[in-house]
Amino acid sequence: MSEDQHMGNLYQRFPVTVEKGKGAHVWDVDGKEYIDCMGGYGVALVGHQNQRVNNAIKEQVDKIITVHSSLYNKTREEFLKTLIGLAPKGLTQVHLNNSGAEAIEAAIKFARKFTGKKGMVAMKGSYHGKSFGALSITFNPKYKKAFAPLVDKVSFASYGDIESLKEAIDDDTAFVILEPIQGESGIIVAPDGFLQDVRKLCDEKGILLIFDEIQAGLGRTGRLWACDHWNTAPDILCLAKGIAGGVPMGATLVRPDILASMSKGEHSSTFGGNPISCAAGVAALKSITEDGLIENSEKMGKIFREGLEKLKENHTMIREIRGKGLMIGVEMKFEVRDILMGLIREGVLMLYSGRNILRILPPLVITEEDVTKVLHALDVILTEEEKKRNVQG
C-alpha cells in the first residue's frame, strides 16, 4: 500500500522511505544512510533519537499521557518554568498549542483583543502557516488564491524597508509581524538596524510587535533567539518546530498584560500543553542549552558557509549564500529539483525554497565530518549539472 493512494497530492515528495534516525543521520528501509539536512523542515533540532528526549518521553508515558489544561500537571509546570527562564525579556506568560500555525493564530487573537484594533501588517516574503489567520498574513499568493476571501485588514511591507512599513501602518494597526530571518522565501536575513527600527516605530505608534521564530528560534541561528543577533525583543514570540524534540508542540509567549486581556474560554487548545510534549520540551530545551548545541550551530554554520563560498568560486550555478548558524540558503541560477535528486543519490537529504534555492536546516548536532561530506556531495552534483548544461547548450 502506497501512502500516495490515501494522502492525496498535498506534498512535494521524494523517493526515500525513512525507517530510522540517529543524530544528523537517517536510514531508509533498504538500509541506505543519509545525512539529514532537511531536519524534518527544522523539527529535528536536537537530533534524531536525542537521548534526553527519548528518556523523557518513556518516563512520562508510564505516568500519564494527557492532562487537559483545566487541570494542573507538574510536567507542564516544569516546562513552563524552563521556557520562561530562557524567554526574551518581558515575555513571562505562555499559551501552549500544537504547531506553528496555531502559535500564530493565538498571537493574532491576543494582539487584536489587547489593542482593540483590527489591522495587521506582515512582510512581503513572509510565511506564517496555512490555517486561515496565518495564511492571511503569509505573502505568497500561490498559497492563498484558491481560498479567498481570507481574514481582511492585512497589509504587506517590504522586508527590511522601514519607510515601506511606515506607509503600511495606520491608526487601526494592531500589530506588525515578521520573521527575523525569513525561511520559506529563501533564508532572507534582516538587514542590520531593521529590527531595532521596527521596535522603535511600534513603540511610538502603540503597535504590538510579533516575532515568528518558529523556524529561526531555539539555537538554529547560533543564538538562542534569532532576535538576539539584533538585541531586540518582541511583545509576542511564536515558537514550534523543534521546541519538543520532534513531538508536536507550539508556544505563544506574551507579555502578561497582553494575555490578561483575554477572558476565560476565548482561546484554548485541547491538546496544548499535554504532558508528553511538555516532557519532551523540557528535555529538548535542556539539550539545546546544556549540550553545546547553540555553540555547535554557530561553529558548524560558519564552516558550512565558508565551504559553500569556496564552491561558489568554482561553480557559476551558485548565485548567493545567505544565513546565520545552521539556517542557510543557497540561491542558484537554475531550478534545484535535479540537484536535490542528485544529492539523494549521494546520501544527502536537503530542502528547497521556491524553485531555485537550496535550504539547509540540519539538526544542531551535525559534525564537521558530516558538513565536509555534504559539501563534497554538492560539489559532485553541481559538477555533473554544469557538464549536462554545457552539453545541452
TrEMBL record:
Binding site for substrate: 269
Glycosyltransferase is among the record's keywords: no
Binding site for pyridoxal 5'-phosphate: 100-101, 212-215, 270
GO molecular function, one term: identical protein binding
Keywords: Amino-acid biosynthesis, Aminotransferase, Arginine biosynthesis, Cytoplasm, Lysine biosynthesis, Pyridoxal phosphate, Transferase
Domain of life: Archaea
Location in or out of the cell: Cytoplasm
Record pathway: Amino-acid biosynthesis; L-lysine biosynthesis via AAA pathway; L-lysine from L-alpha-aminoadipate (Thermus route): step 4/5; Amino-acid biosynthesis; L-arginine biosynthesis
Gene Ontology cellular-component annotations: cytoplasm
A Gene Ontology biological process term: lysine biosynthetic process via aminoadipic acid
PROSITE patterns (UniProt xref): AA_TRANSFER_CLASS_3 (PS00600)
Required co-factors: pyridoxal 5'-phosphate
EC numbers for this chain: 2.6.1.118, 2.6.1.124
Residues recorded with modification N6-(pyridoxal phosphate)lysine: 241
Enzyme class, UniProt record, top EC level: transferase
Reaction it catalyzes: [amino-group carrier protein]-C-terminal-gamma-(L-lysyl)-L-glutamate + 2-oxoglutarate = [amino-group carrier protein]-C-terminal-N-(1-carboxy-5-oxopentan-1-yl)-L-glutamine + L-glutamate; [amino-group carrier protein]-C-terminal-gamma-(L-ornithyl)-L-glutamate + 2-oxoglutarate = [amino-group carrier protein]-C-terminal-gamma-(L-glutamyl-5-semialdehyde)-L-glutamate + L-glutamate
HAMAP family (UniProt xref): LysJ_aminotrans_3
Function summary: Involved in both the arginine and lysine biosynthetic pathways.
Name the UniProt record assigns to this protein: Putative [LysW]-aminoadipate semialdehyde/glutamate semialdehyde transaminase
